[in-house]
Amino acid sequence: MAGPRVGRMRVALDGTPLAVTSGGIARYTRELSCALAEAFPEDEYWLVSDQDFAMPSGAPANLRRGRPPVRLWERRWWSAGLIGELRRRSIDVFHGTDFAVPYLPVRPAVMTLHDLSPWKLRRWYPEAGRIRRRTPLLLRLGLATMVVTPTEAIRREAMAKFRVPAERIVAVPLAAAGLFRPVEERLRAAPYFLHVGVLEPRKNLGVIVEAWRDVSRRHPVELVLVGRRRRDFPELEPTPGLVVEGEVEDERLAALYSHALAVLYPSLYEGFGLPVVEAMSCGAPVITSRDPAVTEVAAGAGLRLEFTDVRQWIEGLELAITNPEWRAEQRRRSLERAREFSWSRTARKTREVYEEAKRRFGR
Asked: At residue 133, does pLDDT exceed 70?
């Protein structure tokens, strides 16, 4: 992308992901909107939605909430209500943070395509029928002036599947929130492995539970699972040492990351893998699957294993338990890699995409 920087900008971002309490897209929307407002205080940023949502705590003054739909016609949000809000606020660019943009091209629009999981296996997202139908049409009609992906791996995949021209799609990596850093406080007395993420089929948790059950017969080590359980995820058989924490506050999560023997991330498919960056920011060793996006994010840090090879995962867990030198080296590599990510950098790269969308709109 090239060209002179435009001046003061009014941007509306889809705040709908903030209607849920956790998850990667909610985190993305919250952190990005605040980082944009902080990095560009001369701009105005509006979070807009037809649903009730919580504004980010401590939001800068130039990050505001849009007006919810009040008239009957405004409740047709993507085709009418949102259009009215964009015009009312004199918005320059709309950013669809969750696979969607307005149905009419009244303003330049940027769509974040987090991954292609809705089109992979239907059982991963059985309730994503609307995304599966709507998003390809929005892309095909050119209603997304620009597209953002979190990794080059997803950028290439999106270009191949949706025929998005290379000049209209940009990879902008995410980052960990600032409070994710090494924490001295230790919350658990026993050594433990940690997994963070929504408990859902795509996360492939069975492989690490099986590997942990094997190594726990020889070593007094726990497996701690943090994250909201989705309705389609089966209850885990209660086992001594298997700790299902549910959702936890970020301060507690940073402490859990900081003292884990390793953070395990065996996911079958990811667009980025935000818990991997959070873990690295806290100096945790990471053991992940060979997913292309996660491999891109972790780079030289951590250990990559085959998705369903339980024997490999057993060996990886044994290595983390028995080799303190390996753990120390991996902690160093994690912190080194984590320094390459920041929400400030993400905000600046995203702002460049907004400028490009303005230049390209109507071409």
From this structure: yes
